[in-house]
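Loading example: each entry is read as three labelled lines plus one structure line.
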Amino acid sequence: MPIAMPNLIPVMPELVMTGVAIILLMAELVIKRKETLGFLSLISVGLISYLLLGSAGTTFGGMFVSDGYSTFFKLIFMANLVLTVLISPKYLQTMRINFGEYYALTLFATLGMMLMASAADIIVLYLGLELMALSTYVLAGFIRYDMKSNEAAIKYLLLGAFASAILLYGTSLIYGLTGTTNLRDIAVYITHNGLAKNPLLMVSMIFFAVAFSFKIAAVPFHMWAPDAYEGAPTPITAFMSVGPKAAGFAVLGRVFLVAFGSVKTDWSVILIPIAVLTMAIGNILALSQTNIKRMLAYSSIAHAGYMLLGIIAGTPAGISSVLNYMFIYAFMNIGAFAIVIMLRTEGFAGEDISDYEGLGKTHPTAAALMLVFMFSLTGIPPMAGFMGKFYLFMSAINAGYTWIVIVAVLFSAISAYFYLRIVMLMYMKEPKEVIQLNTSPGIGLALAVTVSAVILIGILPAKVLALAQQAVTSF
Amino acid sequence: MVPLHWYLTLSAAVFMIGMFGFLTRRNIIIMFMSVELMLNAVNISLVSFSHYLQDMRGHILVFFVITVAAAEAAIGLAIIISLFRNKQTAHVDEMNEMKG
Amino acid sequence: MNSYALIPFLPLAAFVINILFGRKYLKENAHWVSILAVAGSWVLAVMALVDVLGGNTINFDLYTWMLSGGFKVSVGFLIDQLTVVMLIVVTTCSTLIHIYSVGYMHGDSGYYRFFAYLSLFTFSMLMLVMANNFLQLYFGWEGVGLCSYFLIGYYFNKKSASDAGKKAFIVNRFGDFGFGLGIFVVFLTFGTVYYEPVFSQAGGLAEATFNFLGYDVHLMTLIALLLFCGSVGKSAQIPLHVWLPDAMEGPTPVSALIHAATMVTAGVFLVARCSPIFSLSETALMVVALTGAITSLFAATIGLVQNDLKRIIAYSTVSQLGYMFLACGVGAYTAGIFHLYTHAFFKALLFLCAGSVMHAMGGELDIQKMGNLKKYMPVTYMTMLIASFSISGIPGLAGFFSKDEILWMAYAGESPVGKFVWAIGTLVAFLTAFYSFRLIFLTFHGKFRGTHDQEHHLHESPKSMTIPLMLLCVGAVAAGWVGIPALIGEKIGVHNYIAEFMKPVLGHPEGHGTHAEEMVVMLISIAVGLAGIGLAYFMYILRPELPARLAQQLSAVYRVLFNKYYVDELYSFIIVRPAIWIAKNVLIGITDARIIEAVVNGVPSAIAAFSSGLRKIQTGLMQHYATIMATGILIIVAIMLLR
């Protein structure tokens, strides 16, 4: 019997990623300068991005699909990876955790995200999710001597395991009831049978919603996020606040719009209160934070709430605006974290919001960059964040969810208070003490990329949006 | 032959026991074991569904789940060890340095 | 991409380069970038002029910023006859003033910053005039305003300068509020903010009214008046004129470019651009004409007695802007734009000459302390003299043709207030000639009245300053030759080119009068101009003791004029002081009663308190987190299964 070789073209980027990650693990043994590993992973990202563009197709018996939707998300993951690698080395040295596994782990985590984005089958989805999660747990606890980092890792790990048990229970139910794990086959079954007469199917859908809400840190399944974000090494916080969230949205979009696409009225009942609560809790709790990483953690919770609006809208415009927003969010959020990293020096955490007082006087460039990111996160034109929010909200209004948009705008107004407080502190207060900036060429490059992306997308939003719209058509 | 719903009931029961353990026990290792219990409950239902449906996918997923659980345990224990080094405790109640 | 898109973006590029690299690398060479960019824009503007003369109008969208349903925001350019005239005015003045600034700002610590702002201003102004939609117009409008505040407050260490910047900002808020509202009403009415559909649909809504609190409001009048609010603020018309004279705190090239030649004329441009809307409302036109006429008279009378060199020219600017509105208000938009165009040259020239004088006098602005400067600064004297002849309406010079066109159109047009505003305009022509030559005689003639140090220091300005003066002087003489009225043109065989050129956009109302009447109107305007100069000569050269005696005898009138009709004091009395008083007494009183605190601080602090309370949920204990998750799941399951 001839053994048919599966079509490897669609999965080529993932294969290369796996290869590079393993090579990095081995090379780590002989390479003394760990930055070289970072450099190698940057090169591999270039290669993978190239492969991504020609990878369209379905393979492994329909379990793995590479389409515009997955490619768009994978590009976000690549951007996330590149920026994280750029902002890491100096921080790792400062914290004396300059181990080579760091880079391999970020690659593995990204590989997991890529699998999630391409998953057309729940098994692949689960594998990708666990690969991403397990790597991120280790990364979160990477500062082994630091109690906060340990605590972040264990909280993230235990709650993550709890959430994936729930996901698995949902999977087992849906597998038993529909006899398949393929999303399209599940969709066929649900279109024919509906949910109403089948409470177990309903429960399994709820479990999916819960597990994905955990990944995107939506209320009330967000509790891990502030602690994990605060304790993790800052570059990893940046990485976690974009990558797993984007991957979470990728699977949320695919599972709920493909597999459960016919019962949107049922799941929007679940997601609407989650979205509203997420925006509320995220923005309100961010107000009274004193640690900037924690504030950005709550802010990232709130942003997940905004993005849920696009999923709830459920229209192609809604999904494409989620993609668009995720892309913009990657740049503005990592940019803000890059500034946070620069303030960290040996013996000085630089994580207190009050450390930003007078930064405009002592370090005008850093302050100006932070201002751009804060404006963008608030959604002030002409920064990219404004365009992202605008399209999200418009898509929700056009889908008939005007009242949620009104709520979102209100909470977004509250968010201005804590973002602009940073700007106010930087420019209106006198510096307390002289703060040294821990700069490096990598951070400089990352900041240049993020700030130009934030401003350029703000002024010329059409390109990214068109890409996002194109990505959704294939789905 | 044992009917399917017996297995499912068992699975649900074990899952609930695991969840209850996770919510009530304070020792990290025990919480960990509770999660493992939840995962094994899922395995029971997957295998029984698989048998009932005469379909291999359930089995395959079970193997993946077992592997992932092992990896998770390895990572979890490693983190617990470094935690224990820093704090000499495995009690979650004492791990609230970050809150609010 | 259409290369005309570069017209605004070249100065923008210069701004970006200067602001990024100016402080460290360009330093004393910062001007090169800006001058090359603006000169490039000028070349393109001339090409655009040739194109439009060839009969093309260009309207294209460069890129769409956002598009959602029927709502579209894009950057697009409309280059028609009106735009192209503005382009020529803006780029020419801007280029010359950039060059002039090289000498004037030499050695200033913020050299690169100055050029960066100047380029940014040029960009915004070009965006404003080239817009093909109201939103972009608004963007440019606010952009020029912003640059204007920056540049007024350029010497931010000087309190009067930063106060003047603030004043300009606050006063303009009032006008811009109405303007923004006007654009909003346009969008509500037409469902679009693009000129083309708006203006083509406007005719169909000529009689549209809507009911507001029981009154029938004429829609076009409402839109026109709201838009005109913006014009009143930006072009410093009564009652929002108070910021412009104070704006003279900025560097003189700024006064010339922004507060004389270009930005302040944006209000006139707006009225001309929206002429299809204004023409549908007789009320609005009347308001425009009367506002213009009254402002021009009002400012001219103030100008009679001021002693500050730049302020006299500033009041003259306000007065001439009033003239332009007067023209638009009687339906003679072409005449208004024609005057805008000639005015740009001679007024920029007057300011630059003033700057040259200041340069020589070591920053002195009081014309009572000058005198006999013609001996030391021949170029400045000659050019300023010609500019003053031009503004006084001496035949053959630029100002004569445009002023005469306005007066004739006012006299012979269909406007019900035409004759009245003509009379005012003629009176203003007399006053203008008088104060312009009062300035010339006091500054350049007679004996020098300053200190010895100053006298010792007197010198002609460097080439980079005098060459722009001479070039602008050519404009002040010849710019009007494109608009020679038929009355004279028939005899020497030229047409009124500008009127024919502008006809497709602005129309060209025919005067209802005979050649004889036109001749009389023209002769009257020449006569009053000469009379004004003559009176100034009599009072300041022949009988120099007369002005002081006159001031004594008419001391009440003199004081009122010298104190600018006490408008600043009036505003201070009815607006500023009550505001401060309320702030001090009432607000603090209420704060004691904890009402304001409850409202202003209450909302954020309530949220903050709520926030701190809510934080307690996040206990840091994993069990609690898991319990909340489990509870969440239970609640969702319960709701979904029981609903």
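Chain C has a mean pLDDT of 83.
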